[in-house]
Each structure stands twice: as C-alpha cells, then as structure tokens.
Specification:
This protein is mainly α. The protein is 58% helix and 4% strand. The strands form two sheets. A two-stranded antiparallel ribbon has the order 1-2. It has a two-stranded antiparallel ribbon with strand order 3-4. Bound molecules: arginine.
Length: 474
C-alpha cells in the first residue's frame, strides 16, 4: 500500500512509504496521548502567528475553531487516527488543514522537532503535578496509620535481626521522609521541564520574527515571578531529553523507596511477623491453597521497580551516542517516559490505598517488642552513665548476654547478683533498664524513635501534609 502523506512529504517525495515502513516508523499508536498538549501548543503558536502578522484574525479564528472541534472529537473518542500520518502532530494538522484552508499556515516556523519537545514538556508538567499529589496521598496514609497506632512499639532491625525498639510510627515516618525528598526532586525537575522550546524549529530557529515569549506565557512557561522561560539554544532544545531522563531518575528513586516499603509490608503481613493485616480487597488468594492471602499489590510494586529502572537506563542509552541535533531515535523516548509515569503513579496510588486498608496487630507487635535483648544497648548505656568507657560497657553487656544464654533465661531475668557477678558496676537500678516504657522515653534527641520525639514528628507531619486520623500521643 502506498499512500502519500498530505502534510510533510508532499513535494520532495513522489510516493509515500510502504506499509511495512509506515508500521515501523509510526508513533501514533503511543503518542496519540499527547493530543491535548499538541493542540494547546498549536493554539498558542497560531495566536502568536496572528500577533506577528502571519495569520489574519479570520484565519486564526478558523484555526482555533477547527482545533477546538478536533479536540472535542478526540476527547469523545470519535476521531479516526491514521497510522499513515505517522504521529499525533501530523494527524491533528492534516485533519485541520482538510477542514480549514488556513491550517496550511499553522506549521509556519515550526518543526515537529520543536513541536514534540514542546508537547512532551507540557505533558510532563501535568504528570509531575499529579504524581506529586499522589505522593502526598501516600505520605498521608503513612502518617495516618502511624498516628492511629502511635503507642505501638516494634523491634527495629538491622541485617533483619532484632536490634532496638522503635515506635511503629517511627518506622513508617522513615518512608514519609524518603517520599518528601522524592517530592522535592519532582518539584526541582519541574523547574527544568517548565521551559518553552517552541521557536527552535527543526534545529536552527527561523528567519521569521516569532514572539517566543508570548507563546511561553500563553502556555504557562513562566518562573515564580511570571517571567517567560525560554530555551536558549535551538539545537539543545530539539535534541536533548535530559528533562525526561531527570523525571525517570526521580521516578526510579520513588520506585526504589516504594519497593523497600513493599518489602517491609510483605514481611510484616507474613505469619512469622504477623504485625499487620491487609484488608481482603487489597490481597489475592491462591488458586491452589485455600488458606492463602497474598500481598500482591506490594509484590507487584516491588516487581515493577525493575521496569522503572529499565526505562531510565533505556533513555540514558538512547541519548548517549546521538549526534546533534534531532535524530529519529528520539521517538523511542516516549514509551519509556510514559511507562515510568504510569507505573510509578499506579504504584504510589495503590500502595496508599492498601495502607488505608491495613490494620496493625498490636499484641503481636507488643510480644516482639517485649524481647529484652532489644535493650542490651540500653544496658551498656547504663554502664556508660556509671562512668564506664563504652567499649568496656559493650564488652560487659556481651558477657551478660552470654551468661543469660548459658542459664537459658531472657536477659531481663538475671538477678542483680548474677549481673554483678559479671561486672560489679551494675547497681540496684540496673534491672530497671528493661522497662520498655521508660526506655522509649529516654530516646528523645532529634530524629530518635522515642516517645516525645515520635509524637513531635507525627504532629509535624500532620500539620505539614494533613493526615486522616487521631492526634498523636503527647
Ligand atoms: N514522532 C516524532 C518523534 O516522536 C516527531 C518528530 C519527528 N521529526 C522528524 N524529523 N521526523 O520524535
């Protein structure tokens, strides 16, 4: 099948591409989702062309009406995309030109190279804002679950071995901190996405007197003071995709954080820990084992992290060998970018929903946190308070632990005499070290998992981002 494309090829080419070539080169099957931003860009470009005298008012009016109607048809699912027209840009423009003769003037001083760079920036701006909101939702879910269970203590782990007690909320707030940095990275990325490339043409700008600032302001490419943000080098503007890669890198970090959270939740939901219960609606069963209730959302979130990393590496590799300026290789950027945006957004949203339907098994947490070995370091701190150098105190408590193992008793069941037999520095008040409530009250420096500090952190986050529930303990 040979068809000639009415928009870009007429003139130089006598024939359109063959069907296999068209199928290989088309991008409409995935870039059609840029349509809203493509039309917004064209409306701004047309308004500017009228302002500088290239379009008459009537022509601008006809183009605006035509583009608006096409937009409505696309939104209603009534627009027939034509693969032989390659991409979203040519589909929209060809249809406009078919309806409105002035449509043939729309592409004045514009190339698909600066057009696609523009569309991607416009699209990504919206995605960043929406992903940022989703991240806030996840933070709220974490803060909410922490606040609801503010009195629950669990073992904190290193090497997946019980280490020291922490409030359950403290553990969750660790993820809130990570997500806050992720949010900051998105905000930062937004600044570099929010720069208008239109006017760069194919690579070398134009001889026509475009008003780039007008277009930028129309499309909201402005800084905090309302000043237009314009790319400053036409070749850079059409050929680099670092703004997309930066987003994919920020997305990869979000996915990594979500994957760690997923791993914790999977462990906690398992019978061995049994710290949490995920509501039925957010788990799945086994087709074979009737008793199973699997944390598939968390597992898929952990699994999808791989493809989000893959997208980042794919884009970095895509760009690394490209000569200046635009190369068709760049068309391969979109699916990776879209996939990162879609995947990360879905993971953030589903993890938040799952957390809002997760309850804590307080007795199981209490039993685990009651392990007196978690307070072995507190016993060493006790000796430090008696004036013993920490290295020596560590050694002494190590000997106490060995003695308890020998006697087959938990650490807090040694008598004062048995403690003193190991080291005479243990006084009458040494056994009180194993009072968990008192132990938690002592951990109160900034960032510590102690009673007052965790309450302060919960309150800080509730104030900063809101949360669905209960005031923290004071
Ligand atoms: N579909 C193309 C892309 O995604 C648009 C730019 C095409 N430019 C060109 N010179 N063929 O990159």
């Amino acid at each position: 099948m040979k068809k000639s494309s009415p928009v870009s090829r007429s003139g130089r080419f006598t024939n359109g591409p063959g069907a296999d070539v068209a199928q290989f080169t088309e991008s409409i099957s995935f870039d059609h989702r840029l349509w809203r931003h493509d039309i917004a860009g064209s409306l701004a470009h047309a308004a500017m062309l009228q302002k500088i005298g290239i379009l008459t008012r009537a022509e601008l009016q006809a183009i605006t009406t035509g583009l608006t109607a096409i937009g409505e048809e696309i939104a209603a699912g009534k627009f027939a995309w034509k693969p032989e027209l390659e991409d979203v840009h040519m589909n929209v423009e060809a249809e406009l030109t078919r309806r409105v003769p002035a449509g043939a003037k729309l592409h004045t001083a514009r190339s698909r190279n600066d057009q696609v760079a523009l569309d991607m920036r416009l699209w990504l701006r919206d995605e960043i804002v929406e992903l940022g909101d989703e991240l806030r939702g996840l933070q709220q879910a974490l803060v909410g679950l922490g606040a609801e269970n503010h009195a629950v203590i669990i073992p904190g782990y290193t090497h997946l071995q019980r280490a020291q007690p922490v409030y359950f909320a403290h553990h969750l707030l660790a993820y809130v901190e990570m997500l806050e940095r992720d949010h900051g990275r998105l905000t930062d990325c937004f600044q570099r996405v929010n720069i208008c490339p239109l006017g760069s043409g194919a690579l070398g700008g134009t001889t026509l007197p475009l008003d780039r600032a007008f277009v930028a302001v129309q499309l909201g490419f402005v800084d905090a003071k309302g000043r237009p943000c314009l790319t400053q080098n036409s070749m850079d503007a059409v050929s680099d995709r670092d703004f997309a890669i930066e987003f994919c890198a920020a997305g990869a970090l979000i996915a990594m954080h979500l994957s760690r959270l997923a791993e914790d939740l999977i462990l906690w939901a398992g019978t061995e820990f049994n710290f949490i219960r995920i509501a039925d609606a957010y788990t799945t069963g086994s087709s074979l084992m009737p008793q199973k209730k699997n944390p598939d959302i968390a597992e898929l979130t952990r699994g999808k992290t791989g493809r989000v990393y893959g997208n980042l590496i794919a884009l970095l590799t895509l760009l690394k060998g490209l000569p200046m300026a635009y190369n068709r290789d760049l068309q391969e950027d979109k699916e990776r970018l879209f996939d990162t945006a879609d995947t990360v957004r879905a993971c953030v949203r589903l993890m938040a929903a799952m957390l809002r339907h997760t309850t804590v098994n307080a007795p199981a947490c209490q039993a685990a946190a009651g392990d007196p070995a978690l307070l072995a370091t507190d016993l060493a701190d006790y000796l430090v308070r008696q004036g013993m150098p920490f290295r020596q105190a560590h050694h002494a408590v190590g000997a106490v632990v060995a003695r308890a193992e020998e006697l087959g008793r938990p650490l807090n069941q040694l008598t004062l005499a048995e403690l003193r037999a190991v080291n005479p520095a243990f006084g009458d008040d040494a056994p009180a070290t194993f009072n968990l409530t008192a132990a938690m009250a002592k951990r109160n420096i900034t960032g510590a998992p102690g009673t007052k500090e965790v309450a302060r952190q919960l309150a800080r986050w509730q104030k900063a981002i809101g949360g669905k529930t209960a005031a923290p303990r004071s």
